[in-house]
Amino acid sequence: MVEFEYHVDALDADGHTVLFYAVEYEQRDVIELLRKKGANVKNKNSRTSVTPVHYLAKTRNVTLLAFLVKRTWYSVDLGMGDRVEGILPIHLASLNGHTEVVRMLLTWTQNLHNNSVSGSGLSPLMCAA
């Protein structure tokens, strides 16, 4: 479909792009192809503002998270919150007990720390407790 100039950033009824589904189904080749075809890797879900990094932090997919974030073209701000209560990827990882994901997020960005609070005032440390 991409070869036939299908709009790679088109949204479905749930507000997801093809890139989000490629991340959800761990399709690395599709992720790379979408990027080459001009997909906006910073797109958020149009209804919830969740990014692929939010999804990976919640599901504990450390391997694919590393694959995405280590790509030079994937320069997303890991401290970016979603629209619902300002939840950051590190909050989702902390809430779900995903220590390895939390460690990775803290390693990759300087602006994440215990004082990064959600819209409801929770720090990642509070979420982990």
Walk me through this protein's architecture.
The model has no long low-confidence stretch (mean pLDDT 79). The protein is globular and about 50 Å long. With 129 residues, the chain is mostly helical. It has one domain (2-128): Ankyrin repeat-containing domain (Serine Threonine Protein Phosphatase 5, Tetratricopeptide repeat), CATH 1.25.40. The chain has helices at residues 18-24, 28-36, 52-59, 62-69, 89-95, 99-108, 124-128. It contains 7 helices and no strands. 42% of the residues lie in helices and 0% in strands.
Approximately how much beta-strand content do the residues carry?
under 5%
Number of helices: 7
> Structural class of the secondary structure composition?
mainly alpha
- Assign the CATH class: Mainly Alpha
CATH superfamily: Ankyrin repeat-containing domain
CATH topology description: Serine Threonine Protein Phosphatase 5, Tetratricopeptide repeat
- The SSE string, one letter per element, is HHHHHHH
Cα radius of gyration in angstroms: 15 Å
Low-confidence stretches: none
Q: What proportion of the residues is helical, as a percent range?
A: 40-55%
- Largest sheet composition: none
The domain tally reads 1
CATH architecture: Alpha Horseshoe
**Distance between the first and last residues' Cα:** 46 Å
What would the principal axes of the Cα set say about the shape? Answer: globular
Mean pLDDT: 79
Number of strands: 0
Key traits:
129 residues; mainly alpha; Serine Threonine Protein Phosphatase 5, Tetratricopeptide repeat; 7 helices
